[in-house]
Amino acid sequence: MNRQRGKRAIVARLSVFALGWAAAFGAAAQSWPTKPVKVVVNFPPGGAADQIARAVTGPLQEVLGQPVVVENKGGAGGNIGGEAVARSAPDGYTLLMSSGGMVSINPFIYPKMSFDPAKDLDPVAAAAKVKVFLVTRPGKLPTDVQSFIAYLKANPGKVTYGTPGNGSSPHLAAEMFQSQAGVSVVHVPYRGAAPALVDLLAGQIDFAFDPGIAMQHVQAGKLNMLAVGSLTRSPLFPDVPTLDEVGLKGFDADTVFGFYAPSGTPKEIINRLNGEINKIIGTPAFRERVVAIGGDPAPMTPEQFRKRAEDDARRFGAIIRERKIVGD
Q1: Where does residue 118 rank: exposed (0-12), middle (13-18), buried (19+ CB within 10 A)?
Q2: Is 103:258 a contact under the CB 8 Å cutoff?
Q3: What is the mean pLDDT of residues 52-61?
Q4: What is the spatial distance between Cα 240 and Cα 248, in angstroms, rounded to a whole number?
Q5: Do 11-25+35-130+255-323 and 133-228 fold alike per CATH?
Q6: Residue 160: Cβ within 10 Å count
Q7: Domain 133-228, what architecture?
Q8: Distance (Å) of CA 99 to CA 56, 68, 90, 128, 258
Q9: What DSSP string describes 169-217?
């Protein structure tokens, strides 16, 4: 009898503790934020993730009334920054800005990931749907897709392309391209889209599936744009066809970039962030900045964002298995 009373007393104390903890956590969520918020971008400065993050964090700190600081932590296809956030306290003060690939692609190509993006990160808000563009350096390669494909078939293994890294969405776009076009090219992985672009402009590599950061160089005539790796054309280049239109039916390498929080972050904080970020990405200023890198604003609820990641995982998982792609 005494043992049963002891057990009941322990359960009662634990229940009181849990209720007190929940109440304290709820109060903290209601008063959030009371200090600076850090946004980890899991790719180097200058890339699409970095540009989108900075387009959001400036207006976000104004509405939150606290500094929102961007920290770039690239490497391992986004895993290093992703793990840093996944291991952070779920209190709303550490967020992640990532390409969708870290969640929907990396688990297929990094079999020994130290964290599970789907379980250890909560979707907060999608920001932009990012297209990829087939761009080439002038002078060496044909300037239309069909001639380009014919050239690649005539020169197997002699043409190089750069990507932000193994398993990145531009890498998967190139693998999809090789599979559907029946060509063979040489992959040169970098630690981000910006370093790959530097070498493309310098003529160190021949082409890339660019996630939008090469737009100004295309407009300046320093690079040629052959096609859009999406099902829709870009309003910036309405005369440039999609790969689907030129014969690679169903070609779609779009990914969604967005914000995540450590799993267990209070729903009140996630919902507030989602609402504020959706307002920001609905502004003309954000649209202008994202369209300039070839993207489209993509407001979603956290649930819609999670569903999109699951759909992308099925789509990209198929090409990863077919091409036997592995991470660095």
Answers
A1: middle
A2: no
A3: 97
A4: 15
A5: yes
A6: 16
A7: 3-Layer(aba) Sandwich (3.40)
A8: 15, 19, 21, 9, 7
A9: HHHHHHHHHHHHHT---EEEE-SSHHHHHHHHHTTSSSEEEE-STTHHH
Mean pLDDT of 189-198: 92
Handedness of CA 251, 257, 327, 148 (dihedral sign): positive
Sheet architecture: strand order including 37-41: 68-72, 37-41, 94-98, 255-262, 121-130, 295-297
Give me 131's structure tokens: 């297209």
More confident residue, 26 or 235: 235
Please, which residues have CB within 8 angstroms of residue 241's CB and are 6 or more apart in sequence?
A: 145, 227, 228, 233
- Cα 267 from Cα 248, distance rounded (Å): 42
Tell me the pLDDT band of 5, cut-offs 50, 70 and 90.
low
- Does pLDDT of 206 surpass 60? yes
Question: What pLDDT, on a 0 to 100 scale, did the predictor assign at position 326?
Answer: 86
CATH topology of domain 11-25+35-130+255-323: D-Maltodextrin-Binding Protein; domain 2 (3.40.190)
pLDDT by residue (tens digit) across 122-159? 999 999 999 999 999 999 899 999 999 999 999 999 99
CB count in 10 Å sphere of residue 92: 22
Q: Are 43 and 257 in contact (CB under 8 A)?
A: no
Name the pTM for this structure.
0.81
Q: Is the peptide bond before 164 cis (omega within 30 degrees of 0)?
A: no
Query: How many angstroms separate the CA atoms of 191 and 209, rounded?
Result: 15
Q: Quote the tokens at residue 86.
A: 């996944």
